Fold these 4 entries.
Entry 1:
Amino acid sequence: MPSDTSPSADTPGEDTKKMAEIHRHLHSHLPSDPALRVKALESLAVEKGLVAQETLDNWVQMYAERIGPKRGAQVIARAWSDPAFRDRLLADAGQAIKLFGYEGNATEHLKAVENTETTHNLVVCTLCSCYPFSLLGMSPIWYRSAAYRARAVREPRAVLAEFGVTLPEGVKVRVWDSTAELRYLVIPQRPAGTEALDQDQLAALITRNAMIGTQRDLSAEAA
Amino acid sequence: MDGIHDLGGKQGYGPIDVTAPDFAQDWERRQWALSQTMTAPPCTIDWWRHTVECLMPRDYMTMPYFQKWTTTEMALNYHAGVFTLSELVSGQSATPAPDVRAEVYDIPALLEQQRGQNHSFAVPVERPPRFALGDTVVTNRHAGTGHTRLPAYARAATGTIVAHHGGHAYPDACAHAPDRAAGPEQDLAHHLYTVEFTAAMLWPETAHPEDTVRLDLWEPYLAHP
């Protein structure tokens, strides 16, 4: 029988109880309007010298302009074009993306998983919303929704259908639930008829959903 | 703990809004920036996640995603004594402004800082791994009272080891050791494996027979059958 040796199983969880109590306490005193809550937190953090307002402005601008799914698309386009890089990406994606300088939050243990004629990969985080931010930017709202987190593991084909994906006969679904610090990047299949395209043109075909696994066929993008 | 956050496989949810944008509101962008840039009390990623999990269940289900982050940052700072309740309610500091203001980071500096955020969670573990590739394993039935990354839907389930990742920081321990944020050592680490479960094993009544679910699970979650 399984033995449960986790430390938390042996401790009374005083810190857990304390934190739940703090949440109840805050709930009864703080404004429920989220915008007001953030404003209060920002004002306090700035006043106490924990962060500069300009840094926050710059962070927002950086994510809007410099960090997003285009980064992941460039990595995939290179893997499609350069077999040696594809091998490196599959062997250790966390290291391979350093060639582009795209490492950062949650990418050190990145793993690339490749779609094939017989396998379709789909990524989820059922326990929170783990996502390779510095490679793909902020996650889409649906990725962090309760419905996606609940359903992707249990009925992946129904979820895929809502994204317009119908799998051909003989294709199995492999769902990756990001329970540790590994993060997953799906390598979609390269569409037919794209042999003449260069890496920038290829990158333009690759969507964020394809890199999460909620899109399979990129041939419409290539048409 | 058997928390409200453990959503995998839960039923009753409707269609997914596949068209929603990344951010619905400007305050969400501000919260994302705050969480990534403000100086915080000592905290492991696991204690941070556990603090989210400790939200009141109805708040967890009804708050917008980034409001959970706001409330979590407030709770962590309140717990650490950085902010008082009246400060959090008023948004005004009750202490004199510090002599040194926070440094301003421009976009090139933030891009560089972001690259430095690729923390490794690998920790060498001297104990030999108990499982080998291809081994059949059974997961624990119970989760304990604290943080864990073994979801309810994958408990007391039989799967196969498909990868071994060496030692990794163990969330069940690190969540309750926020002061060990600088990098846990062997006492807070265990061998980490990827375990494959057939969908038919997890959900025999509805699963497609060819489909599988893979999770990354630490050694204490697993046993030989």
Entry 2:
Amino acid sequence: MAATTRAPRPPRTLRQQEARTGRLLLSPTVIIVLAVVILPIIWAISLAFQRVRLINIRRAGLVGNYTLDNMERVFTSPGFWDSLWTTLVYTIGATVSSIGLGLVAALALRRPFPGRGAIRAAMLLPYITPVVAATFVWTVALNPQFGIVNAWGTKFLGWDEPIAFLSTERSSLLGVPVPTALLTVIVFEAWRYFPFAFLFLVARIQAIPGDLDEAARMDGATVWQRFRYVTLPQLMPVIAVLAVLRFIFTFNKFDDVYLLTGGGAGTEVISVRVYEFLTARKDVGLAAAQAVVLAVALVVLIVIYLRSTSRAEKANAR
Amino acid sequence: MSARARSSEHPEARPPGGASGATGEGGRPDGSPAGLATERTRRAETAVRPAGPAPAPTPAHRRRRRRPTTREEKVWGALRVLTIVLLVVVTVVPFWYMIVLSLRPIAEVVLEPGKIWVSLSEITTDSYRVVLRSADDGGQGFPTFLRNSGFVALVTMAVTLLAAIPGAYAVSRLRFRGRKLVSGLFLVVYLFPPMVLAIPLFVLFTRLGLRGSLLGLALVYVAQTVPVAIYMLRNYFETIPESLEEAGLMDGLTHLGVLRRISLPLAVPSVTATGLYVFMIAWNEFLFALLFLLEQPSKWTVSLGLSRLSGSIEVPSTILMAGSVVLTVPIVVLFFFAERKLVEGLTSGAEKG
């Protein structure tokens, strides 16, 4: 009896071997990610609670004299709450408009027609173009002196004077005050990222069986009804995922705003602020604290969003 | 019994690996005859499957029974055409404008800023000459930038693929504890604000004297791209029939051997597409290049060099546009080279909802 329970096990089972190979194959990736992403994140959090400036950077370690000073300065510094608000408006505006435009494009290109492949490829141009080139075309086109938009606007649309789209904080349109530069940046984001939403939505639309639409059509449903009650419900899961992704990416975004306006004219989003703290003020601790606040704000917003959608889903299920 | 017989009726009609069928659909331009044909067979298949006593309606049959288009449908049809035209204008015209400006003399642009074409008589390549001349000759030195960008992007691509191919294989095929944890880790990397990473990396690189090092920059890019690459490659690997790999294992290959001799050769097009995508990300990146390379102009990438043009003394917009064309063309060419596979890899999760 005792002999059977103590039967010598083979040195390594196939299952164990497989697990070993799996870990071995993943290890280079995990090591790189730990070293270049995870450790720096921890270090950033630590830096946020230390007094470090670029001059005394040599003393900046993982441990030091922790202080809440930076955090206090982040929250009391002038423009912080404005910047947070700007970031929110910018993020929500860009997310909604890019997904909306992507949905319109996906629906318009739903049925095959000659040349659709080429048009679909052209639609991806804004998304794949390097950000520096994309922002430069916009900057040049919107230039008040020799940009094409203002040239056409004054010539054909009867504008009284050229509009400095990227450096005007506020102007009034038909008596309504408009945050011009911020709005321009949001339109740029919609233009640049609608292909992203378009790609995912097109893929999903093409996987919807045609029978459903056909059946609704036979029953006399209008085009709008077919979209609202047949197609849209099938797209909702993808739209929800896209909303989260685009929100996160836009909330973190630095390049686009920095290159278009440099954060001026009421477009200072938090990432640009972090960059200013780091390079212009040379205050590493303050920049780290501001960046950590950015990350925490993002996590809080995402949790709120996920909670509310799961609650809505539960309500629907009932 | 009958259910099983039905499901085994068209085993070869479906591409292997459930999801891949839908994936193929997503990437194929259905305007092509091949696309239409598969569309038709798919429809016929779905129509036949619940085979009842009623005769299965063929597509042609259906088309005949279609009601004539209503007025409402005509309005929407017109709107659709209008939308497509507008979308094409919005996406293509900026690039057209970029090319036109890069070929016009600056004096003409100032005189006639609203002109959207370039007449043959005024075409000039001066802007490109200035951009491409080396800094010593009074140019903008883009050849150096191009070399730097190419170097960083190629190193990033090579290292990322070297790490991501085995990693993706492990995630898609091997069972081991901690696999879920690793996937979660990658998601965090993918979604985390780069600005948070930038600060400690900036401090670290300054202390190690790695600022201005293209290899250091490439290392950061690798960490940023490996998770995406693994995600894309995993989707491809999962479409390879498992039976093929099992046959390899039966014949005495190790898992590594299976990867090298069976899975990898089958995945070559997909690996190429993933590599190009990583190359594009590295080529386009701006923030880390700005933080790490700013003080050393000889190490600038094209993106950084171009962005500095506008910051310096008054540089004519024609030259900015010529530089933008130089920056954009390689990426657009690479993209159209691999578009189909790339789009497939990026969106293959979407069909499942």
Entry 3:
Amino acid sequence: MIRAIRPLAVCLCLALFLSAAVSADEISDRAKKLHFSSIVLDTHADTTQRFLTGKFDISKRNPDGHIDIPRMREGGLNAQFFSIWMPGAVTGAPAVQKSLDQIDAVKRMVHRNTKDMMLATSAADVREAHKQHKIAVLMGMEGGHMIANDLAVLRMYGELGVRYMTLTHFYNNDWGDSSTDKPAHNGLTDFGKDVVREMNRAGIVVDISHVSDKTFADALEISKAPLIASHSSSRSLDNHPRNMTDEMIKALAAKGGVIQINYERSYLSQEYNDAYKAVAGDVSRMEEKFKKECGDDMECELKAESQFTAKLLAEGKLPHVSWEKIIDHIDHVAKLVGADHVGLGSDFDGADMPEGMEDCSKLPRITEALLRKGYSEKDIRNILGENILRVMEQVERVSRELRAQP
Amino acid sequence: MFRQISLAMACLSAGAIVVAAVTGTALSERARALHFSSVVVDTHDDTTQRFIDGNNFDLGPRSADGSIDIPRMRQGNLGAIFFSIWIPSKITGATAVNRALEQINAVRDQVRKHPDDLLLATTAAQVREAHRQGKIAALMGVEGGHMIHSDIAVLRQFASLGVRYMTLTHSGNVDWADSSTDAAMHNGLTAFGKDVVREMNRLGVIVDISHVSDKTFYDALAVSKAPLIASHSSCRAICDAPRNMTDQMIKDLTAKGGVIQINYHVAFLSQEFRDAEKKHPEINDQIAAEVKKRCGDNEACQLMEGDRLTREYVDAGKLPRVSYEKIIEHIDHAVKLVGADVGLGSDFDGANMPYGMEDASKLPMITKALLKKGYSEADIRKILGENTLRLMAEVERVSQQMNSP
């Protein structure tokens, strides 16, 4: 979650500008055929915050935001992890209750749209949804603070269908260090390691986006199942603590894991990242700035942040970032560790999208660009979704093995 | 552990003589055949507190204390048990939600640990399936609406996790409903309380009216589209406790397909016991103080020590001795009133058990006593479990109906 929801005016103006630059017509028949026959699985979207407002209707095309069913259909996005998220400042039992509220909000959204959507908690469920031409809806929990230091709560989230948990968000929690906070635990505490073990047993994918490099190393060592970075990009292309170094990506991939590229402009472009830091400070601290005006309304906060960057962009204080940066990051990882270890973790509805990737309807561009780069169809399918399905299957297998032990 | 010692002593002294003299402990072939072929369902049991008190209680081995473990459930052919998710009414807010999740996890953990003996059941069909497989069905009921923290989304997640009834209140009022043991403040159910009942109907979570005020009961009865249950309440006509139901309430409950599940707690069974308690309030004060001293905040310890200490006062002649036959009296009273729409809601591990019903192994005595009273085998099977299964199936049907477009 970074921020979202570009004002309509900016949306229209950019869309016009870009449709000239990279029109939908440029998607070749081959790319279309490939893209629309693939399982396209995005591991991170923050649309859940919009569900909570009670005013958002995902079934119809919305003038704002990045995700709704018509645009998912248009972009061939047929499997989506919706994030269960609240700021790290919400802890203890209130975080547990709010998490249940968000899980409920996702499930009710599915319930209202059973013609188009299906709740999925396994790789097989995702494939079944695809077979039925439905969008698979999955849940990931973004931040270990939401378990209130309680493994029982973690297990119940697993039972309720949560299939990954990001160990931290922007702040350290009581048992794990975040990449955007001062180290307090030297990675994972003993309890933090127990959390990882329990996630393995419960079949919840360990997500190391947001965590400190040491937390990542600790989790990688402890986990019996492959890890994912649900929404992180490459640090060698853009030196941001939220991104992964080449060494980390290699270590992640060596254990079967996958890095899912985040489309946030600050994580894609060094130039943008530098400019942003110069004018606004650290991106991870921006949520504090908008907290005052929005209180607990996360959708309001995301909008405020988005308007803030839109204004800076308009004033020329931030550079334009093209969607092609996403391809650069994918390509960098593929060259480093192969196409079996990279995928898509947009951060739709939670971050500032690059130009040309204004919403999920633009996803076929990724397939087109990768084909032009000479990627095989098989590699492209893997990047679009098969890699993460492979990790899910492995996590499920490890869970079955661990559960069978006394 | 203390309780078993006192039990053994009681058996050696008066207890064994009383039980042997009055009823005989031997089961007839007919009683045995009937009891052990029936699905015996108990809708209220507080053993969950033992799962979470930090002493690593496990249902597997025979336990020297308490009333419930797998060997004794097998011995008494208890085929399906609702484990209570319970925290005191004074614990509210998100903390109550968090702690309820811990207890749900604890129940599910026991089922995971004993796959050959236990099966998590959420429907009547699953209870029957467990019975077919020779397993004990474990079910969950939330005892007190305070645990949803006035949040319907939380109620829905409890249901997703397998909770199949919710008692609208415990001993204290909640923000949306009055309890039978608190000063009335909402005149029954508030508008939100009625929404809770409607959502429970939709989810297939049985509305449990044990513990609630008479007005809350009537409000729930009016709103609910599915039959209600009193998961652990007895008859007020025999023992005038606010936790028990009047004859009129029992009639109105069963007229809408509901079932009253008799609670074995001595102070709900016996007017004599209740009068003695009222006459000597210092006894309960002493017991409460001693329990607090021994157990602190450990709820499981409190519940079991309370039972043990009560028996010490009985043995000392300071409180009357209540026999398990009082359970039969309550069953018989309800049956005479409304027919065999009655069942078993022991409150094992959460109340003071009468003599002769110390634990689940003693349950066949109920079948034996009902046969002796001339009950038909069909009626006895209903009382032992079929009534609850019928009610569950009906609640499921209403839920499906409400969810179909």
Entry 4:
Amino acid sequence: MQIPFEVKPRPDTGLWNAKLGIWLFLASEVMLFGGLFSGYVFLRLGAEAEQHYFWPQHTLSVPFGFVNTIILILSSVFVVVAWLQVKLGNFKKFQAWMGLVVLCAVVFLVNKGFEYNDKFHHYGIKLSDNSIVEGHGIDDTIVYEGITEVTIDVQRFNGDFLNAVTGDNPAFREVVGGKPSGDSFPLSVEKIRSIESRINEVAMKARRLSIEEGKTDVGWLPAMGVKRLSLVASNPFSISISRGSLRKSFPDGAKFRDQSMLKGSISDKTPGLVLHAVDRIDLRACDAEKLEESLVWKYLGDEPPPSGHDHSEDKHSASNISGAEHARRAEKIFFSALKKVKEEAEQDGKEPDFSELRNCLVKKWKDSEGVIHGSEPPILVPWEDVRLYSNFTPKWNTYYAIYFTLTGLHGLHVFLGATVLFYFGFCSRKFYEKNPEHFANRVEVGGLFWHFVDLVWIFLFPILYLM
Amino acid sequence: MADTPEEIQEHLKLYWKVGIALLFCTVLTVVVAWLTPSIILGLLIATFKAGLVAMIFMHLNNEKPMIYKVLGYTVFFAIGLMFLTLLSMYDPVVSRVAN
């Protein structure tokens, strides 16, 4: 059956069907991205109203964003040129231009992949005085030692903590009424299931007896089964684990994601969180009068203890000078700049503006003589002074939440648009030969979608990379 | 839309010119952001670029009235979306907690 108005316009709308369809679809896309842009405005204005929360600025690579903008603009030109080649009847030239469009899309997505990868390997630590350090090469290994008491959630237990035990897995005994009971056994998921069955069997019998004696008329329900089990290890043992993989850590114990709770103390070998190469110090949320007293200066330069994991492959700076020397350089960079701002403000008779300075890159800094200094010191922050740490993902702050949502959704549009255009370019020769005018309309529809993708990026580039 | 080869060639030239203008505006956006932290200026340049893409590449400078109607409603509601978040300032729950 011939579908009407694929080539000729409908008399009432003046448009062929696909054209009206794509514009209705693009209208819905405008609302979709409009909602997300509105979310961006909300989060950004909200961040400015918050006293101890600062919107990250200039944390994305401008050259990367610039190149991607150029690529998308060029691809937009290529797609209209390709469409005109169909109109001129040059299918080979159309294919060549469409090939360039698809190539641009691939380069754009590869660039984006590099950018995402960089964010996944870039970390921030928020200290207890709201100061922030950012950098590369995190080591969040935490060792608990002297563990004997373990409480497990019978339903959720998956044995994860056993993988973190250093040395041989210990034997355990059940704790009943506050005292160890029964024989010791090696812990496993199967063992917990058998203990659960045994305890529940006893409870079921007791329930049946109660019903027979007329004490209750409610039968056994699965929710009445054993929920928690306390165990005691025959010998104290230690665990070594990334703190990020724990549900919660305490000075006297660790809670795993399956709710297993282990009581022990943090080893002196892992007193805190290590960032091997700090590249930015952000003191915007600290008291402006007490910048010199920030905890950052207290801990900067502290190397990880020798037994910590070696993350040297994550380091960006390979240097033969010590962490303490690096820290002194970073301090010098920061405080010389601070002094300069104060002096300039005094000369001009104005209030000093520290807003730019307090969010300072220490890996590269130009002094008043134009000499470039740089330093990437390590930092060891004691666990009690770590308020939050994360790589640059939505967990770190809402900027990355909206950044990944917007650019991820846009990237998906690039991928799907490029797939459709590839299909037109390299899998539609028969369609073109059968009805060139209809084919040109299809290419125009694909092109309109591609221009919309470009249009969204035109706004994304300045608001995410430059402002 | 152009259908004769001559008209198509004319359009081809126009598209390249617009492409070059867009590239120039992109460079300008980066330079302006480097010189001044003005958000408004950056957004104005972006809006101009978006206008060029919509008007020339997407042919909105010469379209049928039906498309303008569809887009008119879209623009109205999209602008409304931008102001929707202002309602959070008058959120009765938050105001009560703050007071």
